[in-house]
Fold:
Amino acid sequence: MIRSCLHTHTTFCDGADDVETMCAAAAARGLAAIGFSSHAPIAKKTGIKTSWHLPDEKLDEYLETVLAAKKRWRGRLEVFLGLEVDYIQGLCGPADGDYQSLPLDYIIGSVHFAAPPERGFTVDAPEEEFLAGFRDIFQGDGTALYNAYYDAYRGMIEEGGFDIAGHLDLVKKNNGLYRFFSPEDPAYGKRLLETADCLAAASGRPARETTGNGAFPVVVEVNTGGMNRGRVSEPYPSRAVLKLLRERNVPLTVTADAHSAEHLGGHYEEARNAMMDAGYSSALRLAEGKDGKALWLEEPLTARDRGES
Structure:
């Protein structure tokens, strides 16, 4: 049974609801835990200004608000403090000291920028914006697009500093009906294989001191956010990628990438089915240990979860 969501966004960045509303919705939907993962501030350190990152001047307020919610909901809902940190080669990433020094329970490492950031292009941009950048920067070459994306993702994995690998194949978000590249392309499959190998190697690294019990230092999220927003018909990552991860014993956690309270728990049944089809029998969720530190707990994926008798 999947009973947590560690990838959530609130009004501190690009979410629709505030921290308290998200906590109340999580409890009402039977979740045992919720984690807040605002898009980490990047403007001051990179010069990149967006409408979807946490403003630098709001960082302290964000930390204080989530920590207060952790105390307020204790005994009813476990609340965890995190950030989703963008990896932008040469500019910022989860391993940066300023992020590592924060009192976080976990960090999600993600790649959105797959081109020089001054071009303002992200792989998950709204369709019209994506198409303009794709044509201008990549000359409509889908192979160049996914190579740039997985080059960046591999760089993030190798630098480390994160606990959860975010939406691993996000590059497919604007690739509906395989408009720009086919996931059946052997060259694309090779990039997925390389990424799975890198993640397996990362799972053998020591855990970050601030989180985990040391057994699962890097976890891959099965993210239903694209499904919740009607952009894709399967989780990130796909079944094919999940099979690669299972062959390498890479652990998973399930998240909704919730940008509103209504997204919490959305399409979790489909996520369970995909994981079980790939050979997984359990997923992980974060829990609060006796010493106050967060640790990973293993939860079974059962036949009943899958809608079977």
Observations:
- The chain is about 35% helix and 15% strand.
